[in-house]
Design a protein that fits this description.
Length: 255
């Protein structure tokens, strides 16, 4: 069931989203060759807690299968849900950081892919295209449009640039819970799916692969990788839909 938010609830969600975006920007600035991914996780958790929030991903999931970290750190061929650890970032890597926050019971969610030092031309194009596809999807996230309009806009940008769109993992509703209905696929046909309406808050998050769209899950039960070992990039914003357009609630990520 889709939870329609009041304007007051959206304002509270926006505060959490501001924290999410600020934490993501803070961590992005710490990414450099030689740093361990667990260090990024520790810094993110401390930043979120110092600002009055909680990392919403930590211990998220069914009992016995909880996510063990505060943020997701996915490197190169890892698409999403990478678990931080002792892996050391090196020059040329690309790193996707996904952060969720809980501030007074309201949730924000955002992600971005960052290059470590000098990265390849194809990695630069993949990152740029994934970000462009997110912004194209956001343009379609208005009352009266359909989820398929968002999905198709993302898919079109990706495939016009010779990248593929991950199909098994999707965007979602957010705000009063970490994940809510509806699901927001990153591929589809215009004018299909649920009709968008005022009060919806959704996380749009395209995941684009350099090669094939198929995925595999790692031995840790969480880390999702490209099946062919190609690079992947991931961007995400939390969006509120109004009568007269939308608002990117996590817009502090990029200047």
């Amino acid at each position: 069931m889709v939870i329609i938010k009041t304007r007051q609830e959206i304002e509270k969600i926006k505060e959490s989203c501001h924290l999410t975006a600020s934490a993501l920007k803070y961590i992005a600035e710490k990414i450099k060759p030689g740093i361990k991914t667990i260090q990024l996780d520790q810094m993110a958790e401390l930043f979120i807690k110092k600002n009055g929030g909680k990392p919403s991903f930590k211990n998220y999931g069914p009992k016995g299968y909880e996510f063990p970290a505060s943020i997701c750190v996915s490197i190169n061929d890892e698409i999403v849900h990478g678990i931080p650890g002792d892996r050391i970032l090196k020059e040329g890597d690309i790193v996707s950081i996904d952060i969720g926050t809980n501030l007074d019971g309201y949730f924000g969610d955002a992600a971005a892919t960052i290059g470590v030092g000098e990265i390849s031309t194809v990695a630069q194009k993949l990152i740029r295209t994934t970000k462009e596809s997110l912004l194209a999807g956001i343009q379609q996230a208005v009352a009266g449009n359909y989820i398929g309009d968002i999905s198709n806009a993302i898919q079109s940008i990706a495939e016009n640039n010779n990248f593929s769109v991950v199909r098994e993992y999707v965007g979602h509703g957010v705000g009063l819970k970490v994940h809510e209905d509806p699901q927001i696929p990153n591929y589809g046909k215009p004018k299909t799916g649920l009709k968008l309406e005022k009060g919806m808050v959704i996380a749009i998050e395209p995941m684009l692969n350099q090669g094939d769209y198929r995925t595999i899950c790692g031995n840790d039960g969480w880390t999702v990788k490209t099946a062919d070992g190609s690079l992947s990039a991931h961007f995400e914003h939390t969006i509120a839909i109004y009568d007269d357009g939308n608002e990117i609630l996590t817009n502090q990520i990029w200047e």
